[in-house]
TrEMBL record:
Lineage: Eukaryota, Sar, Alveolata, Ciliophora, Postciliodesmatophora
One GO-annotated biological process of the protein: endoplasmic reticulum membrane organization
MSP domain residues: 7-118
Keywords: Coiled coil, Membrane, Transmembrane, Transmembrane helix
A single MF term (Gene Ontology): FFAT motif binding
Family: Belongs to the VAMP-associated protein (VAP) (TC 9.B.17) family.
Keyword flag Coiled coil: yes
UniProt organism field: Stentor coeruleus
InterPro entries: Ig-like_fold, MSP_dom, PapD-like_sf, VAP
SUPFAM superfamilies: PapD-like
Location relative to the cell: Membrane
Highest taxon above the source species: Eukaryota
Name the UniProt record assigns to this protein: MSP domain-containing protein
Length: 194
């Protein structure tokens, strides 16, 4: 290579870690331009169907940095999975190079992939006393809920019975009263207006 030093610094430096406990497994890669010129970068992987990267290429001016968002589509046996970050000095007007293999002044950084579970033993351990107390409380609550459901059913049945009795008592005299009122109005109304 003809350049004096590195073009970019990458964080993480050697291993990209995905947490298997997360619903969406994602990780970030920070790329910082430490050169004295504008650089173009590109990221590649040997398992392109397994990962999505945004942005996968771009331009960074001197002193600037960017964060690449990497999402794993699913948990994989990632023994051989890796990412390769390519960086090359460019003139601003040139843009991103089309052919990365033709230049000898390309910085290549390899990142291995690792999947981990971050749950520690202390977080997942529950002492027996508190577990028994929670189980007992859960059983009591279930029993109380069942009793309340039964009481509610009885109340509904009683309410329906009472309503039916009221309807029977109220409907006959009410209907008869309405009939008599209508009959009287029909008989006497013609005489009231003339």
């Amino acid at each position: 290579m003809n350049r004096a030093g590195p073009l970019v610094v990458v964080n993480p430096e050697d291993t990209l870690v995905f947490d298997c406990d997360e619903v969406v497994m994602k990780s970030n890669i920070l790329i910082e331009n430490v050169s004295s010129s504008t650089i173009a970068f590109k990221i590649k992987t040997n398992a392109p169907k397994c990962y999505k990267v945004f942005p996968c290429k771009g331009i960074l001016k001197k002193g600037l940095s960017t964060t690449l968002k990497v999402k794993a589509d699913d948990y994989y046996e990632a023994q051989n999975h890796s990412f390769m970050i390519l960086a090359q000095a460019v003139k601003e007007e040139e843009g991103i190079p089309q052919v990365w293999n033709s230049s000898q002044d390309i910085q290549k950084i390899r990142l291995r992939v690792s999947f981990t579970k971050e749950t520690s033993a202390s977080e997942s351990t529950v002492d027996d006393g508190s577990l028994k107390a929670l189980t007992l409380e859960n059983s009591q609550l279930k029993s109380e809920l069942q009793d309340l459901v039964e009481e509610l059913k009885i109340c509904r049945i009683d309410t329906l019975k009472h309503q039916c009795e009221l309807d029977r008592e109220f409907n006959y005299p009410h209907a008869f009263s309405c009939f008599l009122l209508g009959l009287l109005l029909g008989i006497f109304c013609p005489y009231l207006f003339f």
